[in-house]
Design goal:
146 residues, alpha+beta, Jelly Rolls, five-stranded antiparallel β-sheet, four-stranded antiparallel β-sheet, 9 strands, 22% helix, globular
Length: 146
């Protein structure tokens, strides 16, 4: 019986601590990353996740024709660089931050409404390291004001 309660306690503790990490990451996105949109209007979504070195994450988003957008990728200072690509569903690469000196933002306009993929990959400092650094990464989307 005691083991059962211990298991329930550990599960509850994990759920609460995971919520705190998400809340901290959300606060980071709202407090630091949102300002990087500058004169673009935030779309209202806070896309945040915890990533470790070498991990990849993808976000699928629909972009509407004749609208100008800004995509901003932010990370906590402790993480190594996060590279991002914007690709269409057929795999055509429209933007690659590695080819743009590690840029963390990209402004663009689509000719027709389409779904694009924002693919993030955290660089690895040492591929043989036993422990990988992990931290908050945020992707923000803004729309140009008329």
């Amino acid at each position: 019986m005691l083991r059962k309660y211990r298991l329930i306690f550990l599960f509850a503790l994990f759920a609460v601590s995971a919520g705190q990490v998400d809340a901290q990451c959300f606060s980071y996105a709202r407090g630091v990353c949102k300002s990087e949109l500058k004169d673009f209007v935030h779309d209202g979504n806070y896309n945040v996740t915890i990533l470790a070195e070498g991990e990849t994450f993808e976000i699928y988003k629909t972009f509407f024709s004749e609208q100008e957008y800004r995509v901003v990728v932010c990370k906590v200072d402790s993480l190594p660089p996060v590279n991002f690509q914007v690709i269409d569903v057929e795999g055509n690469v429209f933007f690659d931050s590695r080819k743009q000196n590690g840029a963390h933002a990209w402004d663009f306009k689509v000719e027709s409404t389409q779904q694009l993929v924002i693919r993030l990959k955290v660089s690895e400092k040492d591929k043989n390291a036993k422990e990988k650094i992990a931290g908050c990464v945020s992707v923000m989307f803004g729309i140009k004001r008329d």
